[in-house]
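pasting for ref
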Amino acid sequence: MGRVLLSVCSLSLSGSVLILLLLALRPLLRDRIGQGWQYYLWLIPLLRLLLPFSPRISLTGTVLERLPTEAVTGELWMRAPDLRIPEDGALAVQQAAPAMGVWELLFLLWAVVAGVLLFRALWQYGRCLRTLRRESSPMDGRAEQLYRQICSELGMRRVPELRLCPALRAPMQAGCLCPMVLLPSGDMEETVLRAALLHELTHYRRGDVCYKWLVEGVVCLHWFNPLVRLLRREIERRCELSCDEGVIRRLDEKGRRAYGSALLALARPAPDRGTLTLAMSGDAQILKERLEEIMNIRPRNRKAAAMAVGVTAALCLCAVLVGAYAAELPEGTAEQLSVQQQAEPVSSAGQDQAEPTTADEPAAVEALLRERAAALDWDALALGEETACYPLDASYQDVTVPFGTRVHPITGLTTSHDGTDVAADSDAPVYAPRSGVVLLSAFSADYGNYVVIGWDDGAWALFAHLSANAVLEGDQVTRGQTVGYVGQTGKATGPHLHMEVWEDGVRIDPAEFYSM
């Protein structure tokens, strides 16, 4: 949960950088590139706010890499499972309810507010469409003929339904799946009617309603960031300006003046039908700016096109460089870096365990293993030669994270995964692969409860994240004997068995040792 919230916060930070950059560039771009290009430039910060892609080295990754591990993982706020031994001697594992920490509370708050906002937007939009359909009726006559003529001129194959809605104060385009163009009256002058239809059909052809839904989704996800509301307002403004530009480029000087006159004729407050519809009217300030753009339309030229391409490329590069925090997503119940639970090791025999190791890293565990293995008289144990058996029941064969390398979720660097993770049910028994000696039966912050078995040929096998250890250090075990139970202690998100194997002090792929 904490990592999901960190990803959202990093996306919000990266998107905010791009929003501020575009706002700073606005005076420079205003008279140099077209309104349509400026409208779609805002897609770059919009997508940055949504997509958690990131290079290996990025601004956001560098910032989060400097955070303390406990702050990132929430390690200080986790509780261990409650492990107890009943009187009959049988092992029982009773999971205690985890204490909800700061990250969990913040994640819950973010998710609830985002869900409520999204539900409200969907509900209001659905209610708006139902009201519009109820209060409108299909149009025919002169307006319908002109509408079909304009659709033919624009080469449109799918034509939205044209409807008359006297309750409206200005023309409107609404609907994604069942689009419609609504007019407040069919008795408008032909020049005004043509301008209104051209305007709304341009919105439809560009998919502006879908663009607005994308914006609304970002606002719901990043509700805590005031800059996303500024982003929405700027996109709504650019939407109308770019739509006007798209229409008037099809008109001559006389047509442009007629289009401006149509805007003045429809100069009323925008109808209050929600933010996800597209009305031709607007407030006085935006209307003034739209009229200025209509009268001062600039012809396309190569210099403006080159500048637009350059600005777009620079913004895309900035979007990549600022990066995002991409939490590593688990495959099945794979071992992760976030701490879910920590437990003290216990034995099913009801005896005291060896003191848990303080080793939080595999290297310290390996050093301790070398020390314990060197202290044993292997010749006196007379273990004999056996073929290693699979340490789980045959039904558990789902390898979620194999032996090899993986990309570190914070630094973006490639790191090694020195074992194999196999998904299994909680408390499934873990068996000794061969007759040997328990070198370690302990607990660490990384491995949780873990057991290491050694043999006289220099091989060791480690089983980690156990819910409980069933053997003690120094115990001699036989092939197939239960040595522990699958769990999710230590740094793990779900029940699984993490296996590591050493041969002559070198880690090897467990799949080779167990013939998986």
